[in-house]
Hints:
Elements: E1 3-7, H1 19-28, E2 32-39, E3 45-47, H2 74-80, E4 85-90, H3 104-116, E5 122-126, H4 129-138, E6 143-148, H5 153-162, E7 166-169, H6 176-184, E8 188-191, H7 197-206, E9 210-213, H8 216-228
Parallel strand pairs: 1-2, 1-9, 2-4, 4-5, 5-6, 6-7, 7-8, 8-9
Antiparallel strand pairs: 2-3
Helix pairs in contact: 3-4
Amino acid sequence: xxxxxxxxxxxxxxxxxxxxxxxxxxxxxxxxxxxxxxxxxxxxxxxxxxxxxxxxxxxxxxxxxxxxxxxxxxxxxxxxxxxxxxxxxxxxxxxxxxxxxxxxxxxxxxxxxxxxxxxxxxxxxxxxxxxxxxxxxxxxxxxxxxxxxxxxxxxxxxxxxxxxxxxxxxxxxxxxxxxxxxxxxxxxxxxxxxxxxxxxxxxxxxxxxxxxxxxxxxxxxxxxxxxxxxxxx
Length: 233
């Protein structure tokens, strides 16, 4: 059955990446939440898509105590995601002001997750392959998934060689043939970010494992409608 992954929580009805968004995702019945992790200036982990706060301060240069109260810590976010599995995206992009080739963020996130136990609840993802490699070095028991623009054959081969359990390709490039190729290679496919009902159904028919969406309520409705008709979910 296709997993309903709430992109930054229930981000169409609540502010994205907030405790309220995560709680709302749980309330409506999402299977999982995807959230973004970044490092603060004093080595705390904040949940934020952007490296720069709304007031212009760079997050990695700001102490956790000085971060706006609506920016959740990873600890607060995970607590709000009770009952769901969580995809933690590690933000470490070369073009961002907080890019860190030393992978301190990976170390901090892995420490938080391993301290909590329940390893199967966590899925670490990143566009930065080296960040995921560092996560696997630190905690090979944690599952990892590579975020990519397209799941072409070289990408699939590299993901398998790296030991990832999944690929996370962009919905606009994903094909049924690519999903089948990933399945044959032993990789799950969770695509981002799909908000269109018809496209959701196409992906479900193609056997996608998870759909990351801003409208988890819509995806839940699509799956329910399909179930009522006896169609695959």
